[in-house]
Design a protein that fits this description.
Structural class: alpha/beta
Number of helices: 19
Strand content: 15-25%
CATH architecture of the largest domain: 3-Layer(aba) Sandwich
Distance between the termini: 14 Å
Radius of gyration: 23 Å
CATH class of the largest domain: Alpha Beta
Largest sheet: 12 strands, mixed
């Protein structure tokens, strides 16, 4: 079979204006970036906000493994399947980050015959949203150091500047740096560092903002550092919020593209779920709900991270209520959770599958805690045997849930018709009675413990006195009602990436806490998780090049 990029290049794409017409979007509300991608007018979308709301379907997954799960592929396949059975469905996805594209994870435009296109553009630069976020973030960084240099009217303590710089690339050498070296003319030397752009609070703010006014207000509320008396200094205190909003004006507008089957797709925003909140923009999701009968959206990594944050942060902030949840699982990944090494996954091993299925069952139980109906989508691989498929169907059925085999990678919408039909039945049944896991009134430490014990199944958390005092100070400052965003390894329910399956009784170590006052949540950094990833020993970038026909090769 052809590779993903070869399939994408053979796609018969329709004009982006024609894709927009399928949603009754007038040409005047579409700002094309070439022939096949576009920005949508914020003003026109606002005028559609009173339309009847469609049904919201969340696609999540088991914990990721090197064997792959195919969450984005399944999201695209399900969306195509819904359109195939006559429903007006839109898929809302996150934008890929350049860091993983050139690192280990690869692109994020789906795969096989369930992709969004133009694949190369989506994975590389796209419409420039990430560059705008990077620029706005680093403008604030420059203005902070400039403010300190020119007299420091706000009396910022240089030792307590909390705002770093960002770049959309994996670069471990930038995690910890010293800025303003070189003498008096360059400012006051201090320690700082870089995060990856997708971990920027501005990325989270863009994805949670309702409109430009809300965006500017949230930007102004960013805490950039503290004075010597430990009082916070805000972005608005140094008058950076206006210029930052200007840089983000177009970035706030959702991006319209299409699937291989020429169905509309919104791709907008891209915070990681292991170090940020892992969901596409509220603006794009609401646009989809006002223009379609169904919206299929995904949350990053496994359900313990992406889905938990989608439900506890995004839905809480935007007043969204999902109608169904699809958990993607592969037999290969479950066998790896059962102890099978990657090079042995193509061999039948029902016993390992049964053992590793504990990971899937844990995720099912967790989603049900939010009072939502769950369907398991088994992303089929050609190496899956009939015995393994039958066993997994039985395991899920015995747990009281249901699973459906999906073959969208090979057959596109034809491979997800059964899943689409069942999702429609569940959505129309009214089974969903969504409620967040915890209430706003809980203390911050209790919220952190709630996620750790209820979702990760830890026995407790560990946090030193400094962290506990910091959380109490934030509560006194009026931030106690905020939700928590857990920054944790995506590979395990624990903070140990090597602890697969469904571990329980472990301790979740809270290494650091950060207040994202603009985004509106508290970040709890667990264990060794990094907000600036590094490249692997053999990064994908080594194989990416332009061939003699001027085509990009090596993207996956």
């Amino acid at each position: 079979m052809s590779s993903d990029i070869e399939i994408a290049r053979k796609a018969k794409m329709e004009s982006i204006l024609d894709i927009g017409s399928k949603l009754n979007i007038p040409n005047s509300a579409i700002s094309p970036f070439g022939h096949y991608k576009a920005k949508l007018s914020s003003e026109w979308l606002d005028s559609q906000s009173n339309n009847k709301s469609g049904k919201l379907i969340l696609v999540t997954a088991i914990n990721p493994t090197p064997a792959g799960e195919g969450k984005t592929t399944t999201s695209v396949g399900l969306n195509d399947g819904l359109n195939k059975i006559g429903k007006k469905s839109i898929v809302c996805l996150r934008e890929p980050s350049l860091g993983p594209c050139f690192g280990m994870k690869g692109g994020a435009a789906g795969g096989g015959y369930a992709q969004v296109v133009p694949m190369e553009d989506i994975n590389l630069h796209f419409t420039g949203d990430f560059h705008a976020i990077t620029s706005a973030h680093n403008l604030l960084s420059a203005m902070i150091d400039n403010h300190i240099y020119w007299g420091n009217k706000q009396e910022i303590d240089p030792r307590r500047v909390s705002w770093k710089r960002v770049i959309d690339m994996n670069d471990r050498a930038l995690r910890n740096i010293v800025v303003s070296l070189g003498g008096v003319s360059n400012g006051f030397p201090r320690e700082s560092g870089f995060d990856i752009t997708v971990a920027s609070e501005i990325m989270a703010i863009l994805c949670l903002s309702e409109d430009l006014s809300d965006l500017e207000k949230r930007l102004g509320n960013i805490i950039i550092g503290y004075r010597r008396d430990k009082s916070p200094v805000f972005c608005k205190d140094i008058n950076a919020d206006g210029a930052m909003t200007v840089l983000l004006k177009e970035a706030l507008q959702p991006n319209l593209v299409q699937t291989l089957e020429n169905n509309p797709a919104f791709i907008h925003g891209g915070p990681f779920a292991n170090i940020a909140h892992g969901c596409n923009s509220v603006v794009a999701t609401r646009a989809g709900l006002s223009l379609g009968d169904y919206v299929v959206t995904e949350a990053g990594f496994g359900a313990d991270l992406g889905a938990e944050k989608f439900l506890n942060i995004k839905c809480r902030k935007a007043n969204l209520k999902p109608d169904a949840v699809v958990i993607v699982a592969t037999i290969r990944a479950l066998k790896m959770n059962g102890g099978v090494p990657k090079d042995q996954l193509s061999k039948e091993n029902v016993e390992a599958l049964e053992k590793g299925s504990s990971n899937l069952l844990r995720h099912i139980e967790n989603i049900q805690k939010f009072k939502l109906p769950v369907i398991v989508g088994i992303n089929h691989f050609v190496s899956d045997t009939d015995s393994e498929v039958s066993k997994l169907l039985d395991i899920v059925s015995e747990s009281g849930s249901e699973a459906i085999v999906c073959k969208h990678w090979s057959y596109g919408s034809e491979g997800t018709k059964e899943l689409a039909e069942r999702v429609v039945e569940v959505c129309e049944s009214g089974e969903a009675n969504f409620q967040p896991l915890y209430k706003d009134e809980l203390s911050l430490i209790e919220k952190i413990k709630c996620v750790a014990t209820e979702i990760y199944r830890a026995s407790d958390i560990s946090a030193d006195k400094k962290i506990l005092n910091q959380l109490k100070d934030w509560e006194k400052g009026g931030y106690g009602n905020l939700p928590v965003c857990m920054a944790k390894t995506q590979y395990s329910f624990s903070a140990d990436p090597n602890s697969l399956g469904a571990p329980e009784g472990h301790i979740i170590p809270i290494r650091e806490v950060r207040l994202s006052a603009g985004a509106g949540f508290i970040v709890a950094i667990c264990g060794d998780i990094m907000t600036m990833p590094g490249l692997p020993s053999s990064p994908a970038a080594e194989k990416i090049h332009i061939d003699d026909d001027n085509l990009v090769q090596g993207l996956f």
